[in-house]
TrEMBL record, chains A, B:
Native species: Acetobacter musti
NCBIfam families recorded: PQQ_syn_pqqC
UniProt-listed Enzyme Commission number(s): 1.3.3.11
The protein's name in its UniProt record: Pyrroloquinoline-quinone synthase
A Pfam family the protein falls into: TENA_THI-4
Biological function: Ring cyclization and eight-electron oxidation of 3a-(2-amino-2-carboxyethyl)-4,5-dioxo-4,5,6,7,8,9-hexahydroquinoline-7,9-dicarboxylic-acid to PQQ.
Keywords: Oxidoreductase, PQQ biosynthesis
């Protein structure tokens, strides 16, 4: 474990080094997804399981919002809820994700029921919500820093999927377009907050640990998908079975 | 979803049917483990990850103990803490599991540090502790009912591992011997409690859901091991690497 206090710049460098080693753009399932090596049922399984992550992000952000001490911080964080929940029915990130699962031919009621979810997806997503509820506000904010790395993965994913899958259209992937501007705005704020407020060795350790934890959440979601839907015979009892 | 109230006997039959379909003795990794198809490093990975489950069981039981309404119930549940934590240093189930990881040549401090844990293991185990904290006492007690099925898996595991692995001895597997009597005692109590107290359709639904949830915890722990340690190249960043 580290024992020297880092400058804000060195802390940022260590955070970026964690992303360079642990962000899920390096996961074999992500590469298979955007290289076009998956079939429609496997892409459906990805979208169905990822839906639970998308649908839980507002719960995660509301959990953190409820713990933030100032109006300025709450206003900043409230924007994330607006991005995901929208201002009217059918708007916002969660609705756009359902538009994606619709476009892949999944029954919306089945997706929303979460019945076909992999247990590994459920546990990873809920670990994220619990982390934000139970850890320090500083660690909770730091756990959002995977968004530092998301513009790259989003552009890889969108271009790769459009190029490689005839069952996917630009419209189906509409979820990702606003994320390309929202994610950098959000991660700029979170990074500046973390660099300003992680002022002790323990706080910096907690911040680096929070980002490692969050990378583990995203990584293990792809582990569960790769295990269940790429190797035949591994779909756990009760989970979604592509038709 | 079911809508008819079940007799206690039909409820027990449905609980046993869940075990027959979802208990992890059916998992490919369990079969590989006890059929002797794993190498020493893979068995080490199993023991290292399973340690976090063992070490968290007393936390799970203490969490439930704190929510039980009567002295009689608390006395009953306290026995589980005694089984796992023992009455003196070096006694109890957690210490016996460390004896197993010692016997497999794992460094005890490394095992206890949890540094090499798979994220999938961590999230599944913590989901169990959170479930017992957050759901009804009835559902929390029902989630322990996987022990109805554990004597079979323990005898399969012990005989299979002794027969197939020259690096494993009866002494290394000492953890399992007392479980053969403790698990039936505990599950008899939990089953009787659930049959007596699940008196509405909603309560019976919650009880059946709790056992499915718990089967998912155990199953997804083996998914994570099978994915990371059986297929080459899948060990996630930061997790245990067999030497």
């Amino acid at each position: 474990m580290r024992d020297a206090l880092l400058s804000p710049e060195s802390l940022e460098a260590e955070l970026r080094a964690i992303g360079a080693e642990r962000y899920h753009n390096l996961h074999p399932f992500h590469r298979a997804l955007h290289d076009g090596r998956l079939n429609r049922g496997q892409v459906q399984a990805w979208a169905l399981n990822r839906y639970y992550y998308q649908a839980s992000i507002p719960a995660k952000d509301a959990t953190l919002l409820a713990r933030l001490p100032t109006a300025a911080l709450r206003r900043e964080w409230r924007r994330r809820l607006e991005d995901h929940d929208g201002d009217a029915p059918g708007t916002g990130g969660v609705a756009r994700w359902l538009h994606l699962t619709d476009g892949l031919g999944l029954d919306r009621a089945y997706v929303e029921s979460l019945e076909g979810l992999l247990p590994g997806t459920r546990f990873a997503v809920e670990a994220y919500v619990h982390f934000v509820r139970d850890r320090t506000v500083l660690a909770a904010i730091a756990s959002s820093l995977t968004e530092l790395f998301s513009p790259t993965i989003i552009s890889e994913r969108v271009s790769g999927m459009l190029r490689n899958y005839d069952f996917i259209t630009q419209d189906t992937l509409a979820y990702f377009t606003p994320r390309l501007t929202q994610a950098p705005r959000d991660s700029d704020f979170a990074l500046a907050y973390v660099k300003e407020h992680a002022r002790t060795v323990e706080q910096q350790r907690a911040v680096l640990g929070a980002l490692k934890f969050k990378c583990g959440v995203l990584w293990s979601m792809l582990d569960a998908l790769d295990y269940a839907y790429v190797t035949p015979g591994n779909i756990p009892p009760g989970a979604f079975r592509p038709s």
